[in-house]
Design goal:
single chain, 193 residues, alpha/beta, four-stranded parallel sheet, three-stranded parallel sheet, 6 helices, 27% helix
């Protein structure tokens, strides 16, 4: 395949969605979702032809990245399986503090691109917000429409509760979400943020 043909392939260039911010991160648009009685299951627990009751569940990606890499690299492959659920959180590609910033930025972009792709295919998508260190604030909140419902995972933050509470307060203040979903209960010190 020639380089010209590769650049014409939307899955190679990935420029088929509106972008925002200085890094041109794909935009995940806000969507309506009833937030009372939200139930989430891990992407690794989803199955083809799942039971009808699972249509009330949302799917989260707070698991090891290798379990959902195909959402970005082969986005058509899991589409039918995930489309049977009520809604999807965007993939939570890792933003480890020891990653160089280019890797963290790439993972935010991948997450938002997948969310925009799913929305293009008619799925309800709730963007997952993740960050590592204050250096990631320059891009980690980009690509999410203001006043949307957002999801925040708490995996990996139990050892540094105070920083998490400060970070979530910054996220919520600068982002103004309509509602935020946490996979676990917020630490008591974070209540009211």
């Amino acid at each position: 395949m020639t380089s010209k043909k590769m650049r014409d392939n939307p899955l190679f260039v990935r420029n088929n969605f509106p972008t925002v911010g200085k890094w041109d991160i794909p935009l995940v648009r806000k969507q309506v979702l009833p937030t009372d009685n939200v139930r989430l299951i891990a992407c690794s627990d989803t199955r083809a032809n799942d039971r009808a009751e699972s249509k009330r569940n949302g799917v989260h990606f707070f698991v090891d990245d290798y379990r959902f890499e195909n959402t970005y690299y082969k986005p058509n492959q899991p589409l039918a399986r995930y489309s049977q659920y009520a809604f999807l959180l965007t993939p939570d590609f890792s933003l480890y503090g020891e990653f160089p910033l280019w890797r963290q930025l790439e993972n935010v972009g991948k997450s938002r691109w997948v969310g925009a792709y799913w929305q293009e295919h008619g799925l309800i998508v709730i963007p997952t917000i993740s960050w590592s260190t204050p250096r990631s604030y320059d891009f980690c909140f980009d690509g999410v429409e203001q006043n949307a419902i957002i999801a925040v995972g708490m995996i990996g933050c139990k050892s540094n509760k105070m920083n998490f509470c400060e970070d979530i307060a910054k996220c919520l203040k600068g982002y103004s979400p309509r509602k935020s979903l946490c996979l676990a209960n917020l630490f008591p010190k974070c209540k009211g943020t």
